[in-house]
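Protocol step 4 of 6.
Sequence for Tyrosine specific protein phosphatases domain-containing protein (Streptomyces pristinaespiralis) entered exactly as in the expression construct, tag removed. Do not edit the line below.
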Amino acid sequence: MCCCHEPPPVPPECPACLLACAPSDLSAGSGAAPVPGPCVGVPRAPSHLPQGPPTREARCSRSNRPTNESAADMRPRLFTVDLPGPGRLSTMARPRGGDWLEDGMGALRAAGVDVLVCGLTRAELDELGLALEAGAAADAGLRFVAVPVPDRAVPDLATVLPTLRNLAESLREGAHVVTHCRFGIGRASLLAAALLVLNGFDHDAVWNGLERARGLAVPDTPEQREWTMQLRAYART
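Step 5 output, structure tokens:
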């Protein structure tokens, strides 16, 4: 066959010119010079490199995570308040979302956390890859409680009081309760303070203890601190 009129068939390993193929060896052994393949002149990709972009399944595969991540690496840092009694109260920044969420919840449970209180709004959960946080927490054996509060804002007292009273009771009974928002400063501290105020702790002592645990000034706004004073008065009515 004369190769001057039509090119030889593309070797099966040539990925349709997306990567360069080597000169065709179809004429090898015939004594004729090798016929260049259709991608001649384009640098050939090393055979050990991936052939094309990974699929979505490959990108999201749990097996593609770094293998040196331990349970301790996955656990968000807890800022635990010094309290008398059997219960423990901690605040934290939001957990890692998306493909890391399940392991993060498991690490919290392994650390002895019983109740996880989330102060994020639905829009924030979606933005941060935490839309499935409630289910992941339940699967890990955590009780998950959502108390959504807009950033730098305060919740409605009448709406949240029953939930906060229930959480305060869990704390008194010895549970390890963890509150979180986005950065673990404003709303996480606000919700933690609310539980302590409902359990009869002095208002100023509550905020001083939260600041010592967190290592910086909390909460985000004076209005959030004022809200806990209103909570005490409202709960007594």
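Step 6, annotate. Residues 1-5, 10-67 have pLDDT under 50 and may be disordered.
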